[in-house]
Amino acid sequence: MNNLLLTQATSYVALKKALIALTAISVVLFYYFSDPADSGIGMTCWINSITGWQCWGCGGQRAFHQLLHGNFREALQFNALVFPVLIILSYTLMAELFHPRPSYIFLRKRNIQIITLILVISFTLLRNLI
């Protein structure tokens, strides 16, 4: 019985990792071959639609597409937050795929959450006022 439970748990973990990897590869391939600036496939920001202001995520899809093509300056112009967001997402992805027990406890710390909120609000204000 214990052997069966261990096998099922191992199968679940393997399936979970395969789905995470497949999703990540699919997203990268989609944004590599599909330019959100030209295709019109990207999401519309409701904050921008209502207020005319760009939120912290506006331009993120276009920035990611440019980054995949090695156009760092253009990515920075579309959305500078794409760089730290991708670092955190890459860390999370690698932890999920290659560590037996991934830990992102630092992302749950109150100080990190407050600092992130302040940075996101500051970035949103600065990109619209400057």
The low-confidence parts are none
Task: Report the radius of gyration as a whole number of Å.
Answer: 18 Å
- Count of helical stretches: 8
Average pLDDT, rounded to a whole number, is 87
**Major sheet details:** none
Could you give a short description of this structure?
The protein is mainly alpha-helical and 130 residues long. It is built from 8 helices and no strands.
Structural summary, described in words:
This protein has one domain (2-129). Helix content is 76%, strand content 0%. The chain has eight helices and no strands. The longest helix has 32 residues, at 2-33. With 130 residues, the chain is mostly helical.
Indicate the topology:
Layout: H1 2-33, H2 36-39, H3 46-51, H4 60-68, H5 72-78, H6 82-98, H7 105-108, H8 110-129
Helix pairs in contact: 1-4, 4-5
Relevant terms:
mainly alpha; 130 residues; 8 helices; globular
